[in-house]
Design a protein that fits this description.
alpha/beta, about 425 residues, Alpha/beta knot, six-stranded parallel β-sheet
Length: about 425
């Protein structure tokens, strides 16, 4: 990867680039960073690069020297130009990862009142803000961007695992860290870290990350996949009885192959422990067993191994209670039953609140989806919580297929990056 920095103060950038991990990464050839002095492209003995703002105000960087500096960069393809600015989008880890995939990244360091808007409109691909405050120049934000991006380039940071354990990379804040001495100023390192039990230490750190995130930055939980942070499994239940028919009466529905295939694949994708299929009809259960057998044991298993793995998550039950009993025995705890519905239900809870509760209490969630015209009251009243309907569009129309509802729900809770 190549990074070019356009600046009026190259010494600030160069002194930083030569230090620490970033400097060693450049020395090893893991990335190339060049610093371009904008004044080298200015005219006159004063090498002027700024002038007064039209309509009153302070000084603004002129478009001419900036354009010449940008045009001087080598390469056949147009580089991706980033301009650190208070008006930009907020820098976050996912954006850093997007930038790290660019072949040639150019960062323009602004100064004074900023950069002539004509240059911005013509050349800048993305304005980025590192926070809601104002600095005297763009060099510090540029260095922050370079540092964040370079850590994701293989070989710059010594251990790739260190990057994956950082705050935000896995969706949560980092765990607390301790070093020698084991007791300092009357405070001791937690005993679990001195135990030598790697499994217990990993579990403790995972829990500390969750608690720290919920306390300090609950806002980032919404975009975090929480599966790696749970100590128990999560389950999806597709109910074919008791559900409602078109008249609102208790009924049973037929199982469709399309739902089986799509829900099984969604469950495998998001790390669901088991896809629980509930129908009291023996013929329906036998049909499902034949389909599953075809893909897990028969010709289908060798034809499509991914499909075989997806169907390995499916387990069939004759009733909701039997399925819940099986989960209870498997997890050795009471499952947290979340009923879903396309209708407004009094006391329903938003998915973000449910997500935080699952994390906070380290629950084993079972997401219960109805077929037909939705779950019967018998299921809803036994649930620990009912999730508010999936909503979208500009009106109240809401009739998603069960496989669509499952995929949307799983992505909200367990989608990772």
């Amino acid at each position: 990867m190549k990074i070019s920095i356009l600046t009026a103060f190259p010494d600030l950038i160069n002194s930083y680039l030569g230090a620490s991990v970033l400097g060693r990464g450049i020395a090893k050839g893991r990335l190339e960073v060049e610093v371009i002095d904008i004044r080298d492209f200015a005219e006159g003995s004063y090498r002027q690069i700024d002038d007064y703002s039209y309509g009153s105000g302070g000084m603004v960087l002129m478009p001419g020297p900036l354009q010449k500096a940008l045009d001087s960069l080598s390469g056949n393809e147009k580089p991706f130009l980033v301009y650190p600015s208070p008006q930009g989008t907020r820098l976050h880890q996912e954006l850093v990862e997007d930038l790290s995939r660019k072949d040639h990244l150019v960062i323009l360091c602004g100064h004074y009142e900023g950069v002539d808007e004509r240059f911005v409109v013509k050349n800048v691909d993305l304005e980025i803000s590192i926070g809601d405050f104002v600095l005297t120049g763009g060099e510090m934000p540029a260095m922050a961007i370079v540092d964040a991006v370079s850590r994701l380039i293989p070989g710059v940071v010594g251990k790739s695992e260190a990057v994956k354990e950082d705050s935000f990379f896995g969706g949560m804040l980092d765990t607390p860290h301790y070093t020698r001495p084991s007791e300092w100023d009357g405070e001791k390192v937690p005993d679990i870290l001195l135990s030598g039990d790697d499994k217990a230490v990993k579990k403790w750190r995972r829990r500390q990350s969750v608690e720290r995130t919920l306390k300090r930055r609950p806002d980032i939980v919404g975009r975090a996949g929480i599966m790696p942070w749970l100590s128990r499994g999560a389950y999806v239940m597709e109910v074919h009885y008791p559900v409602l028919d078109k008249r609102g009466e208790k009924s049973s529905t037929a199982i469709t192959g399309m739902d089986l295939h799509d829900i099984a694949r969604a469950c495998r994708t998001y790390g669901i422990k088991k896809y629980l299929l509930v129908t009291p009809l023996a013929q329906q259960r036998d049909m499902v067993k034949k389909i599953v057998s075809h893909w897990t044991e028969g010709w289908g298993a060798s034809y499509n191994r991914d499909r075989s793995e997806a169907f390995g998550t499916l387990k069939i039950f004759a009733s909701v209670n039997r399925a819940l009993k099986w989960v209870r025995e498997k997890e050795k705890t009471e499952p947290f039953k979340i009923a879903t519905t396309a209708k407004s239900v009094e006391g329903a809870v938003h998915w973000l609140s449910l997500k935080r509760r699952i994390l906070e209490e380290d629950l084993s969630p079972v997401f219960i989806f109805g077929t037909g015209w939705g779950l019967h009251e018998d299921v809803l009243k036994e649930a620990d919580s009912v999730m508010t309907p999936i909503a979208g569009g500009l009106d109240s129309w809401n009739h998603l297929s069960v496989r669509s509802a499952v995929s949307i729900t799983l992505d909200r809770f367990f989608g990772w990056r």
